[in-house]
Specification:
The structure holds 2 protein chains of 2 kinds. By secondary structure, chain A is mostly beta strands. Chain A contains 1 helix and 11 strands. The radius of gyration of chain A is 15 Å and the shape is globular. Chain A starts with a strand and ends in a 24-residue tail after the last strand. Chain B is an alpha+beta fold. A 6-stranded mixed beta sheet of chain B has the order 8-1-2-11-10-9. In chain B, a hairpin with a 2-residue loop joins strand 4 and strand 5. The longest helix of chain B is centred in the C-terminal third of the chain and has 10 residues. The chains are: A mainly beta, B alpha+beta.
Chain lengths: ~150, ~200
């Protein structure tokens, strides 16, 4: 029975297998200052560069809102320099495979690649992230972003 | 009343076209339920015409915006919305028929009518940019009735694996004769694995 870590950002619920996670960080206050709501940005964190991914940026691209305090960063085993932005971690849950569905066939391309499955959680749904595909979100020709005045 | 001879006219959330109100035409048998309020989970990287997913009867259904699918202007405030659960049958890779459901967000002023309808064959309405998503179009007094190609829309992923033939992908400009109205709707309905 897989254990999923549930989180949400931008009103979208996600889930990722616990085994895919290296650790979860709680950045210091002020980390969010200077962050932009974009799919991927490079920030200085713990003395090194980190690619920070916001999976909801594509659907919230009109949002000019800044991130709320208390952001978390989910660090992945498969991509140590890649962090997944979470506004709130809801918890971890042992999920019965019967609670899982594949993404409906109307979805193709990136949506299917990144979220091949969906977990039913009471009255809402969570998109199950395929962690192995996340590095594909990084730009092929990475450019150094304006230095951020943030520190982990 | 014989359900085989009944259709639902679901208002499109788009401005009138040439003074005519635009409807989607569905067989009653294609419509599983009309919902008042659906909580939608958005999905990043979804096609523009997919608003997200929602749970229904233990299934995960996509919520479709047919106006965006067809390329029509979306006028979401035209009338209060309703979420209509529709079903279609698609041929899976293994050759098995699989029942697929989706939710279409339409206007609330849904009309229930009995066949035959007093209508004429029509052409693809102005503003529709993807005629291949339509199976038929009819002109009825002050209305335009569109039969959408649910099988194609719902099954984009499989279609991508098995691309449409050029002829089918092209779509056509003029559709069936009036006498074939029922055939067009029935063709969809016949593929439905009716329950109960």
């Amino acid at each position: 029975m897989p254990q999923l870590v549930l989180f949400h950002t931008g009103n979208i619920h996600f889930a990722i297998e616990r085994d895919e996670i290296s650790h979860i960080e709680s950045p210091k206050d002020g980390f969010a200052i200077g962050l932009r709501r974009v799919q991927c940005q490079t920030v200085m964190h713990n003395g090194g560069a980190m690619d920070l991914i916001d999976l909801t940026a594509t659907v919230n691209k009109d949002s000019q809102q800044s991130y709320p305090p208390g952001l978390k960063i989910i660090m992945l085993k498969s991509a140590p320099s890649l962090g997944l932005l979470a506004e709130k971690i809801s918890g971890a849950l042992d999920v019965d495979p019967q609670q899982m569905d594949v993404l409906p066939p109307v979805f193709a391309g990136k949506a299917r690649a990144y979220f091949p499955r969906i977990v039913r959680l009471g009255d809402h749904l969570g998109l199950v992230i395929d962690a192995a595909t996340l590095p594909e979100l990084l730009p092929a020709d990475p450019k150094v972003v304006e230095p951020c005045e943030v520190q982990g | 009343m014989n359900s085989d001879a009944q259709v639902l006219l679901l208002p499109a959330r788009t401005p009138d076209i040439n003074g005519k109100t635009v409807y989607y035409l569905f067989s009653v048998r294609q419509v599983a339920e009309v919902l008042l309020n659906t909580m939608i989970q958005r999905v990043p990287f979804a096609p523009p015409y997919v608003q997200g997913v929602t749970g229904w009867c233990g299934r995960v259904l996509p919520v479709l915006c047919l106006e965006r699918c067809l390329g029509l202007e979306l006028l979401a405030d035209r009338m209060p919305p309703r979420d209509v659960v529709v079903r279609s049958v698609v041929l899976e890779d293994g050759g098995q028929l699989e029942e697929h459901y989706a939710i279409c967000r339409v206007g609330a002023a849904i009309r229930h009518m009995e066949l035959p309808l007093d209508c004429e064959p029509g052409t693809v309405p102005d503003g529709v940019t993807d005629g291949s998503c339509l199976t038929a179009v009819y002109d009825m007094q002050a209305s335009i009735l569109m039969v959408v190609n649910l099988e194609k829309i719902i099954n984009a992923y499989q279609r991508k694996k098995q691309p449409l033939s050029q002829e089918a992908a092209k779509g056509s400009g003029v559709f069936a004769r009036p006498s074939l109205l029922w055939s067009a709707v029935q063709a969809e309905a016949d593929n439905i694995l009716v329950r109960g």
